Amino acid sequence: MFQTAALSGTQAEQYDELATQARGLLSGERDRTANAANLSALVYHALPDLNWVGFYFFDGTELVVGPFQGQPACVRIALGRGVCGTAAATRQTQRVADVDAFPGHIPCDSASRSELVVPLYAGDALVGVFDLDSPKPDRFDAGDQRGLETLARIFLESLA
Ligand code: SME
User: Fold this and answer.
1) Hey, is 16 helix, strand or coil?
2) How far is the C-alpha of 104 from the C-alpha of 99, rounded, in Å?
3) Residues with CB under 6 A from ligand 1
4) Could you tell me the pTM of the whole model?
5) Would 2 be classed as within a structural domain?
6) Which of 31, 36, 94, 109 is 20 to 30 A from 138, alpha carbon to alpha carbon?
7) What is the pLDDT of residues 74-115, one digit of tens each?
8) Distance of alpha carbon 66 from alpha carbon 63, whole angstroms
């Protein structure tokens, strides 16, 4: 079994530790489903105040739910729709302090109050999105965004 030490130190130090754990967990494996499943589980259990962590993958037309931790989720999301579809269409991380104030937010788990979605691109090709939900309003700050974008990069690099 993969052993993970509890995170400690400043927020930046904790994300550095988590990045090291993620590199170790994904190293030597290129399978997208396997790496998405393990990264979802790692992050879900390492970070506090999350109720959903996972992936949507682009099937050539829309986003389709992939490996995740949390409650069952909506399966298909059109590009440009909701927080996930907006991240995919704009190529910009969406950090949403209050999901109820986000136009078109798609409620999958009614407990979710804030959300962060990182778009996943391999060059110009859309791979999907990495999505995190929290039951706490304004759960994600700029440091979380930086740390989670690094984890998304580690995931993409593992597939190359
Ligand atoms: N809330 C997302 C949908 C996915 S779930 O949160 C797992 C959205 O608006 O795109």
Assistant:
1) helix
2) 9
3) 52, 73-74, 77, 82-85, 105-106, 108, 112, 115, 131, 133
4) 0.97
5) no
6) 36
7) 999 999 999 999 999 999 999 999 999 999 999 988 999 999
8) 9
